[in-house]
Amino acid sequence: MRKLKAPDVVIRRLALYLRILQQIDDEEGGRFISSKELGDRAGVNSAQVRKDLALFGEFGKQGVGYEIGYLREELRAILNANRTINVAIVGVGELGIALARYNLRRFTREKHYPFRLVAAFDNDPAKVGRKIEKTVEIFPISQLPERLPELRIDILIITVPADAAQAVVDLAVKAGVRAILNFAPTKLFVPPKVRLHYSDVSLELQQLAYYLES
Amino acid sequence: MRKLKAPDVVIRRLALYLRILQQIDDEEGGRFISSKELGDRAGVNSAQVRKDLALFGEFGKQGVGYEIGYLREELRAILNANRTINVAIVGVGELGIALARYNLRRFTREKHYPFRLVAAFDNDPAKVGRKIEKTVEIFPISQLPERLPELRIDILIITVPADAAQAVVDLAVKAGVRAILNFAPTKLFVPPKVRLHYSDVSLELQQLAYYLES
DNA sequence: TAGATTGTTAATCGATTAACAATC
DNA sequence: TAGATTGTTAATCGATTAACAATC
Hints:
The structure is a homodimer. By secondary structure, chain A is an alpha/beta fold.
């Protein structure tokens, strides 16, 4: 039901609020936080904090604010951060390996990090069959259709070259993938029910370049 | 002057249009493109394409469309993609190295790729003095203030751990940095004249997780 | 010329912020 | 109680889309 109403930008901010609450809890252990303070830390207006939260329920007390531990758990539930999310990477190049290790390290070290890397895929015969950090097996991309349901992969990270990305995505969509994070610098096409986000470093750089003195 | 009027989201789309035009030019070599077709390829409305471009001039011909080579050069000029942009990376961990190599490779292989990696910075004595791919020297972070002007660094990429990022940024700001791309999963504070963009993988994953079935 | 497409104005849509009664 | 802060409605702001005269 909630999927119907909340805009994407609100979900992004909820994820940010959650991160902030987890940091506060770890470091300070204070009990209540006002929308003003949470907003300041997140860089948004306090009215926006209250409005974002109000889309999902009433979590605060007038005159007091939000109980930090309670709000944190509510946000974890809303964002599915209270269960393990299985992630796989397609494309075991430099970036793929860097992201894999980054993810493995955070999963090992942080008690609440929900993203577990369960597999990697690549077409290079020299890579297939090997493991990343002795734990994550590398499968051929052709095995995506079987492995996706078998390993209960929730999110697929795409780090193959741009000209290979659409074919990978087509295969994954046919196998029923629901969420994709694409690092390839190209637009991809998926059916509406599949969630697709982009992370595009060279587009970011190009955007920043605009603001330099010419 | 142009810095005054164009919203951030327009600049992002201009960078996308430019990428598309460069691809078309490389592959097909057609002469004109309509706002309809460019919009379809970019995933935006044709009126939006025309409005975005109209902020910077009149680049099209009624009844015909936009001459591809001409529009491409105009966009390259607007976005500063027609000159070399010097980039440096602070934080030579997995991600930093992956981004460095990725950038070096594209600079070598693509004739119009404007981003050149000129330096890296890290505090690990085992890394300082070594080079990435035999070309990019690693300096201690303490040398940021001298190297920034000396190497004419335009954009700084931050890949240090979250708890070290603000100190790095403070140092860079004092040394006059103008644009920063931050990969550390934390909010950073900079004066308004400094342009700061974020690339936050775990926030993206958390956002995607929301859309999964609970 | 007739058809197509631009540049731009007007209409719509959605998101952000201000304001305030309710209430802890 | 008095002060503070929520949840929510109303006002504002800005971005997107539709429409169309101008014109290639």
